[in-house]
Amino acid sequence: MVVMMKLKYVDELSGGRKRFRRRFPKAVAGVLGEEFFQVPMKAREGAALVREQEALLAEYEKIVAKAKRRGAGQGVLSPLEHWREAVAEVAAMKEGIVGNLSDDDRQEILADDLHRRGADPTMIKALMMPDAKEPPVTMLDAKRMYEQERLGANPGRNQKNRLERVCRRVEAALGPLGKLHMVGLKDEHGRKLRDYMLGVAANGKGGKLLAPRTVRRELDMVSTMVNLAIKSFDLEKEAKNPFEDISLATPNKASQTEWELRDPLPAAVLEAMRTRMTGKLRRPELGLIWRILEGTGCRGAEVVGLRVEDVFIDHKYPHIWVRWHEERSVKTQTSVRAVPLVGDAFEAMKAALALPREGSHMLFARYARENGPDAVSQALMKHLREVTQDPRHVVYSLRHNMKDRLVTAGVDQRDENRILGHSLGGVGDRVYGGGEARLKAAFEAMQKANAVSP
C-alpha cells in the first residue's frame, strides 16, 4: 500500500518537478515588492522532499521577519549586520542538512542549492569563506548601537523621530550611513556636517535656520553615537571622533547662551496669564499646570509627568518629587529632586489632586502620553501669545522668573540649584546632609522667593 502525502506549499511542475510556493503577507509583499516566495525544489519525493520543504519554510520565515523589521522603520542592514546575519543563516542551514555527511559534503550540497536558487551573494560568500574579514564598521552600525544602548527596547516616538532626523542630516551632508566607515572619519567630516547644519532650515523646507543651540544638541548626539561605536567595536586605536567638541563659533559674532535666548515674563504678562489661567478654561488642567510651573520653576515635562505618588501635600514641608519612572525620564541626575510647594503652587496642587483621573496613577491623566508635555506646551503658548508677542517670552520663561525671585530673595546658591535642578558644586553639596534637612532649607528658600513681588 502506497501512502501519498501532500506537503503544504509544495506544488508540482511539468516532468514531476516540485516547487515551493507561499504567498507573502500583504505588508511584507509591500516591502519586498514580491507577492510570493517560490523556489524550484531539488528533491522529488520521500524524506529528502520533506527535509527540503522544512528548510524552505524556515527560510520563508526569516525573509518575512527581516521584511517586517524593515517595514517597522529599522531600514536596511549595514554591511557588517548583513555579513553576520548571513554567516548565522548559513550555519543554521548546514545544520539542517541531515544524514551521515561530512562538513565538506554539507557545504557542497548547500552551495549547489544556493547557486541554483540565485541566492544572495553575501550568503554564498559566508558559506564558502566563513572566516573572511568582516566588512568595516560604519555610521549605520553606530546608529544601531545607539538605538540599542541609549534608546532601549521601547523608545518613545519623539526619541526615534529625533534620531532619524539627525541621521537624515548626517546623510544629506556626508552620504549614506552604510558607506561612512568609522575608521575613515576625519576632521573634515566634522566641519562639513557642522556647516551643513548651520545652514539648513529647521523644517527642512526653507525659512528659519536651525538655532546654534539645536545644532549643538544634534552634533552632541552624533558624537555620542560615534563614541559608543568606537568603544563597542574596539576601535579606540583606529578611529577618531571628528564631531566631539567641535566649535560652532563664527567670525565677528558672539555666541548666545541659553539664558540669553529667553526672558523672564514681565509683571504685566504674568498678571494677564494668571487671570487667564484662573478663569474658565476648556481644559482646567492647563491652568493648574501653569500655576505649578510658575510657583516651582520646574520644567514642563517634570510637572506634566508627575504621578499622584510623587506629590506630598500633607508633609511638614509640602513638596513634589521629580524623579524617573516608566512613563517619564528626567533630564539629568541632578534633576531628580524634591521641589517645595508654597503659595499658589500649593493651592494649585491640591486642586490637581482632586481632578478626575479614571483610575490613572498619573496626576494629569489627560496628558499621560508620550507627547503629552509637548501638547501642554503648545496649548499654553497659544494662551501666552494672546498677551505677549515677544519671541523671548515662552513657557520656559517661568524658570527664569523663579531664578530671578530666588536671587532677589538672597537664597543660597546651593538651595537655588536644588530647587531648579541645576548641577551642584562640590561633592559635599551633592552627597552629604540629610534629606529632611535639605528639604527644610529648600522649603524656607522657596518661601522667601514667594514673598518677592514679580
Secondary-structure map:
Blueprint: E1 10-12, E2 18-23, H1 26-32, E3 36-40, H2 46-74, H3 79-95, H4 103-116, H5 121-128, H6 139-151, H7 157-174, H8 187-198, H9 212-232, H10 267-277, H11 284-296, H12 300-304, E4 311-312, E5 319-322, E6 337-340, H13 343-353, H14 372-384, H15 397-408, H16 413-420, H17 427-431, H18 435-450
Antiparallel strand pairs: 1-2, 2-3, 4-5, 5-6
Helix pairs in contact: 1-2, 3-5, 4-5, 6-9, 7-8, 7-9, 11-13, 11-15, 15-18, 16-18
Summarize the structure.
The chain has 454 residues and is mostly helical. The protein contains 18 helices and six strands.
Any key phrases for this structure?
454 residues; mainly alpha; three-stranded antiparallel beta sheet; 51% helix; 5% strand; elongated
Strand share of the residues?
5-15%
Topology, number of strands: 6
- Measure the end-to-end span: 99 Å
Whole-angstrom Rg:
30 Å
**Spatial sequence of strands, sheet with the most strands:** 1-2-3
By DSSP (H or I, 4+ residues per run), the number of helices equals: 18
Spans where pLDDT lies below 50 across 5 or more residues: 251-255, 425-434
**Fraction of helical residues:** 40-55%
- What overall geometry do the principal axes of the alpha carbons give? elongated
The SSE order reads EEHEHHHHHHHHHHHEEEHHHHHH
Summarize model confidence as the mean pLDDT. Answer: 84
Structural class, judged by helices and strands? mainly alpha
Query: What about the largest sheet?
Result: 3 strands, antiparallel
